[in-house]
Specification:
The structure is a homodimer of 498-residue chains.
Chain A lengths: L2 H31 L6 H19 L2 H12 L6 H19 L2 H24 L2 H22 L5 H9 L5 H23 L15 H14 L7 E5 L5 E5 L2 E6 L7 H18 L16 H15 L3 H14 L9 H7 L17 H16 L8 H13 L25 H20 L2 H5 L5 H10 L9 H9 L4 H15 L3
Parallel strand pairs in A: 1-3
Antiparallel strand pairs in A: 2-3
Helix pairs in contact in A: 1-2, 1-3, 3-4, 5-6, 6-7, 8-14, 8-20, 9-10, 10-11, 11-16, 12-13, 14-15, 14-16, 16-20
Chain lengths: 498, 498
């Protein structure tokens, strides 16, 4: 094989994967936005074929040979090409180790599980979901062995979502979170509570849409490259660094819901839009890991979006969009309201302070499920006990308890911790950012140029060129979870006069 | 090869083509509805790759062998399988003749051309579009040779959209149209004109959307399988017979524009939704030709939608949707207004009578473009001359002249004539329908069940199982353009007291 020919094939292979991903993304986007309701069947046929073609491509012997050849000529490749070969070889080996029949069986199982979970959640019937969940757990234990048989199964699964993270690392992280935040939340609970009732006045969707446009502007999201749509669950979907979509969900009795969805998804979008052009249409584009991605979305959502300077900057504009609803409200009241701490049942609606405890509960349960020290049937009992212990709330039913999230039904075990890691990374990014520049004067004027440039420089541009650990090192320095707990302690001590 | 195995492969091949088509459709749908404006580049890369893969699949030696094998075992196949093999073999031979790199290049070009055309139209700058158009013309001349080198290039292109139609056939058809309709239009011009000013009162988009919902209901389009969206240019897009999308465009100063777009696209949708289940995910689904497709859309739009009984049936409901705007209007005035003949500049807004002359102008220009007797740069001049000659109107700029339609930017040459053929087919279908049933009593009650069943039976169900000529024969009998010109003469003689 000629090296130049091999490099052309390498580029074409990645463009094909990009095309399959774009196709599936477009079909998915359609399905959750405008598709008529009884059209799932035909879309399923198309998505199944596309997934099969993409899997066949990535496990073909020709691709194996191509990657071997390029690995042998590593020294002749550019750094970017080397990294492409490394990442593709890693995927190739992993995918090749999963027997085709098991992969197919698993695909059918997750498809079925999604249906069963929906029904179980609707009727709050965990027993209905348990048998499928058990199968999913067993598949994941088996797959963990294919991913990396030298590791404990849960470590191998964690590595899929946040390469380098393992139980030793997460036990220490969540240990700090538990030790520092649980007492803090208790102390807050004993203080007079913040009044956020004005956030639940009537906020018409039309006015909220205009407010979203304004937020997109403040976030400096170029509408020529970043669309905003409406779906039941907000998400970010990237086609490439010139085409990213975010969605939000408007609730007329809540101002903060969509506001923080837009800022959160906007943070994800800024990451994708900030990736270097030369990484486009390759396996190195896209945010490097779930944890790093969440660090960006939660940075914008919480560290910036729920800061006093930011609220002070945008509040006059908020009053213009909602003159009646906010006429008797001050910026300070708004700042306090969007930071109200309220232990609750639902992770996706949790405040900045309690959020990581929701995640910790799932981490503890997953860890035991995968190492088989917890039986599937006992999940509800452990779930409810931990919610009482960490958050002080009573879980009234499994619908609002262990059936609330879709992740397990989709076969994702090891995904949750990344949600909390992101917040911790973000706090360290802020610390470093503050050392290098005056963050808050500009934010206080509604100018996020500096923040955007810093994150673009340290994180966004690299896409997946560096590993998650390298990106974290680059933007955070040595990982230290107390920076995160200190950040929260300081902010909420002031807010609640602790 | 085992016959059963070969049949499985035949089915899989067609499912793959379906998946590629679905993928491209979803990307296209996104691009014209919600995609941010500066995102064409990445979408072009994905569409190019998908087109390439689809082309590679359909020209692979394995497929060639499969189709040969099945052709040899034709007698052992069902009728449907035989037709699949015939059609696939036809495509296989045609596509095998187009070099893969040219095909890919062309896919990228059409994506780019769409952008350029938009800009050129916006600024009425034909010179901006001309170089791309020239490339598109040259590609089409070259492709025509690949399709069928024994034919004149334009005949080969015509055959792609309406198999069996050629310049000899169309010259005769348009000859009748020219001879019979041009004098009729002149005669109408000398009569007192119909007052349709009330169609241009203020019709708020929100009320028009509700009116569209009503029209979808009257057309008996199941919203669980047929969505309606909004785009600059209305169109119908089918994924399969359970998933069809139509779009419309609301103008607040015009009631009839969107109304007839919905009915027109609804006619296309009814065709696609009426195709038999056993043809789904095969090459035999989808309307059989552009001409037959237009016969359905224009049947609903004009023959039904602009008939006196239909207007009488829906007019009370129209008054409910637009009480202020229509309070001083009668059903008869509405009937006359939606049938006002007014030679104009814009094809898509043309009335039933002048429409085919707009098409004829494009036919004459395309014919000369493809046989190279007309240079691209001279299009505006010829265009403007023909509009004066046939319709008596002066074209003020290219935006409202030769840049008005998107077809050429999409690489479609030979498509236009089908628009006029469809109307002629429709008139013959009506003639036959009237022989077999009482069409107008039910239509006069707003009940289209009978019409729908007749068209479903004679046309829709077959998809592409029969050829266009067979479908036309089945529904129209022997083609005779004077049935169409007689239909128009009778209707407009009464309307204009000629």
């Amino acid at each position: 094989m000629e090296l130049n020919y091999a490099l052309e094939q390498l580029s074409l292979l990645q463009k094909k994967m990009y095309a399959y991903n774009s196709a599936s993304s477009a079909l998915y986007l359609d399905s959750v936005t405008v598709a008529p309701k009884d059209t799932a069947e035909g879309r399923g046929v198309a998505l199944g074929i596309l997934a099969g073609e993409s899997q066949k491509l990535m496990t073909s012997p020709e691709v194996g040979e191509l990657l071997s050849f390029l690995s042998e000529h590593k020294s002749e490749l550019s750094h970017v090409e080397q990294r492409q070969v490394e990442e593709l070889q890693r995927s190739y080996e992993r995918m090749s180790r999963i027997p085709a029949d098991e992969y197919m069986e698993y695909a059918i199982l997750t498809n079925e599980a999604s249906d069963v979970w929906h029904k179980a959640k609707e009727t709050s019937d965990f027993a209905l979901f348990a048998p499928v969940l058990e199968k999913l757990v067993n598949f994941n234990i088996k797959f963990a062995g294919y991913y990396d048989s030298t590791k404990a199964p849960y470590d191998a699964l964690l590595d899929e979502y946040e390469r380098g993270a393992d139980m030793a690392f997460l036990d220490e992280f969540f240990g700090t979170v538990r030790e520092r935040l649980v007492p803090l939340i208790k102390a807050i609970g004993e203080k007079p509570q913040i009044d956020d009732s004005f956030l639940h006045r009537h906020y018409p969707v039309e006015a909220q849409r205009k407010f979203s446009d304004y937020l997109m502007e403040i976030l400096q999201l170029d509408r020529g490259h970043c669309g905003i749509g409406e779906t039941e669950h907000p998400f970010t979907l990237e086609f490439n660094n010139k085409d990213v979509r975010i969605t939000t969900n408007y609730k007329e009795d809540s101002l903060a819901d969509s506001m923080y969805s837009v800022i959160h998804e906007g943070g994800h979008a800024k990451y994708e839009l900030g990736i270097r052009d030369d990484l486009q249409y390759t396996c190195l584009t896209g945010g490097v890991s779930m944890g790093v991605h969440e660090s960006q979305s939660r940075f914008y959502e919480n560290i910036i979006g729920r800061s006093r300077p930011f609220i002070e900057a945008i509040f006059p504009k908020m009053q213009e969009f909602f003159p009646e609803q906010l006429k008797d409200v001050t910026a300070e009241q708004m700042y306090r309201a969007v930071n109200k701490v309220e232990p609750s049942l639902i992770r996706t609606e949790a405040d900045e302070m309690t959020y990581s405890l929701h995640v910790m509960i799932r981490y503890e349960i997953e860890k035991q499920l995968i190492d088989k020290t917890l039986a599937v049937k006992d999940i509800p009992q452990v779930w409810n006990r931990l919610y009482k212990e960490y958050l002080g709330v009573d879980v009234p039913d499994d619908r609002r308890g262990c059936l609330q999230d879709s992740h397990w039904s989709g076969g994702s075990f090891g995904y949750f911790p990344s949600y909390a890691l992101g917040s911790a990374y973000g706090a360290q990014m802020l610390q470093n950012m503050e050392k290098e520049m005056d963050v808050w004067t500009a934010v206080g004027k509604g100018d996020l140029t500096g923040v955007s440039a810093w994150l673009g420089d340290k994180v966004h541009q690299y896409g997946s060129l560096m590993t998650p650990a390298e990106i974290v090192k680059n933007a955070c320095g040595q990982f230290d979870p107390t920076v995160y707990t200190d950040y929260l302690t300081k902010k909420y001590t002031e807010l609640y006069h602790l």
